[in-house]
């Protein structure tokens, strides 16, 4: 099927739901460790508490990709039903997460939240490949990245914003501050509204051969054999991108799980107070605990706000690429390599910055890597796979995202960080080194169509 080129507004509409998805991910990534610490988690236990996130991605995304490839409804299309189901579940989970009263409850809600977000997210990646001709793939994924950048920036700053409006950062021991609860409620609303916008403003192409499609649907479910077969026959470009993804996502999982404890301790000098170290029956010590806890919560707000800058710089990165790729081709390989190395430098710089304000520069550099991670690998991959299997391939590709996160969660971060010493900030050095390794792995990409696909304006 020859697909027509889409205008900017059409691409914007089909990607707008990612704003809500990123609200969910940014709130999860920026504040779940803070919630865990508030509920009494030790720093060394934080990565394993995050295990729910990558595990759900490993299970959910290939299943949803496979199911959406085999779905068609005359009104709702192929991917949009999954957007909607995921949005409803994610919004409910976002409302409940900050009201957790125990550590096990917060970890359970993280499991539900991440699974729900994944139901919406995976089909969005496939939708870009479904709707756009190859010459617009880079452009489409970059527009998606632009929207993700906006979501990351705003959502990461929400607790800080609502705190500035007078919502309290103070709370009793083991209670999540109201500023976080309000931020998550806003995120729930944005998630649902933006997904609904995409669902009602975007159409989808029907299967090219409807009769053949119906015959395939009637066949006995071959989910596991199909998944295993597609894993075994994945193109070489996908395998090479998988290695790059491994080191990239190990780095970002390290940031999401450890940046708040590392930066509040190393940069702000306000680590989360441990209740066991205070005699809460003594009014003086209880007051000291409350003061330390409020300082930690306020520092966490600022860390979250600075983390939002990586969304802002990824947005700027994406905007430049949108303007450039609209009419010109790019070398995806070198764009991705340079961006990842800059992000690695951003992480490493956190170890030596003299004051918190310099975190803005660190996260700005990280934003270049984030913007590239969300666009270049998918643009390179989509030029190398069968369009009929785009959903399941994107789901399998997600394995290269979640496996490094699982390894990081079950001890990878703690082990590698401990080789550098006992300081929590060493986790950011590990993240930086991992991202730089990912950058140099781009030299493995040699396939011409993956490296660059010439714009139709320049095609012969």
Characterize the structure shown.
The protein is globular. The protein has a single domain (8-203, 226-458), classed as Growth Hormone, Chain: A. It contains 19 helices and no strands. The chain has 460 residues and is mostly helical. 72% of the residues lie in helices and 0% in strands. Helix 4 (52-69) runs antiparallel to helix 16 and helix 11 runs antiparallel to helix 18 (426-440). The protein starts with 7 loop residues before the first helix and ends in a 9-residue tail after the last helix.
Draw up the topology in text.
Blueprint: H1 8-15, H2 17-38, H3 46-49, H4 52-69, H5 80-96, H6 103-131, H7 137-164, H8 178-201, H9 210-218, H10 223-232, H11 236-266, H12 283-325, H13 332-349, H14 359-373, H15 376-382, H16 390-397, H17 399-418, H18 426-440, H19 448-451
Q: Nearest-angstrom radius of gyration? A: 22 Å
Number of strands: 0
Largest sheet: none
Share in helix: over 70%
Q: What would the CATH topology be?
A: Growth Hormone, Chain: A
Structural class: mainly alpha
> What string gives the helices and strands in order?
HHHHHHHHHHHHHHHHHHH
State the end-to-end CA separation: 19 Å
Domain module count: 1
Low-pLDDT residue intervals, each spanning 5 or more residues: 454-460
Q: Report the top-level CATH class.
A: Mainly Alpha
* β-sheet strand percentage: under 5%
Give me the CATH superfamily: MFS general substrate transporter like domains
């Amino acid at each position: 099927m020859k697909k027509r080129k889409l205008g900017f507004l059409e691409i914007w509409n089909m990607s707008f739901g990612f704003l809500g998805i990123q609200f969910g991910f940014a709130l999860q990534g920026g504040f779940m460790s803070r919630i865990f610490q508030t509920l009494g988690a030790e720093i060394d236990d934080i990565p394993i508490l995050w295990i729910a996130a990558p595990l759900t991605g490993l299970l959910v995304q290939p299943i949803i990709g496979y199911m959406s490839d085999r779905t068609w409804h005359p009104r709702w299309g192929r991917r949009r039903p999954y957007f909607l189901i995921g949005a409803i579940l994610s919004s409910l989970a976002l409302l409940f997460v900050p009201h957790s009263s125990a550590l096990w409850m917060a970890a359970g809600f993280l499991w539900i939240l991440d699974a729900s977000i994944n139901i919406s997210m995976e089909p969005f990646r496939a939708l870009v490949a479904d709707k756009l001709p190859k010459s617009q793939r880079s452009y489409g994924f970059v527009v998606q990245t632009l929207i993700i950048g906006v979501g990351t920036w705003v959502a990461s700053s929400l607790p800080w914003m609502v705190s500035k409006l007078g919502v309290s950062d103070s709370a009793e021991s083991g209670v999540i501050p109201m500023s976080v609860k309000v931020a998550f409620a806003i995120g729930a609303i944005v998630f649902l509204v933006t997904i609904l916008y995409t669902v009602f403003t975007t159409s989808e192409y029907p299967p090219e051969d409807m009769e053949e499609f119906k015959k395939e649907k009637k066949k006995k479910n071959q989910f596991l054999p199909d998944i295993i077969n597609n894993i075994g026959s994945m193109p070489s470009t996908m395998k090479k991108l998988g290695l790059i993804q491994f080191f990239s996502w190990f780095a970002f999982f390290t940031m999401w799980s450890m940046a708040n404890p590392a930066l509040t301790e190393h940069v702000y000098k306000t680590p989360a107070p441990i209740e066991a170290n205070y005699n809460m029956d003594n009014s003086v010590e209880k007051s000291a605990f409350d003061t330390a806890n409020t300082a930690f919560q306020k520092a966490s707000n600022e860390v979250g706000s600075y983390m939002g800058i990586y969304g802002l710089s990824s947005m700027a990165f994406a905007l430049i690429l949108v303007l450039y790729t609209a009419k010109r081709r790019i070398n995806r390989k070198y764009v991705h390599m340079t961006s990842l190395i800059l992000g690695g430098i951003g992480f490493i710089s956190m170890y030596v910055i003299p004051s918190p304000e310099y975190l803005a520069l660190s996260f700005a550099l990280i934003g270049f890597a984030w913007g590239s991670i969300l666009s270049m690998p998918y643009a390179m991959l989509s030029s190398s796979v069968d369009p009929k299997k785009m959903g399941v391939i994107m789901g399998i590709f997600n394995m290269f995202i979640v496996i490094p996160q699982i390894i990081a969660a079950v001890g990878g971060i703690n082990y590698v960080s401990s080789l550098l010493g006992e300081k929590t900030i060493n986790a950011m050095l590990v993240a930086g080194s991992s991202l730089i390794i990912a950058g140099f792995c781009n030299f493995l990409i040699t396939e011409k169509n993956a490296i660059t696909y010439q714009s139709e304006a320049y095609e012969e």
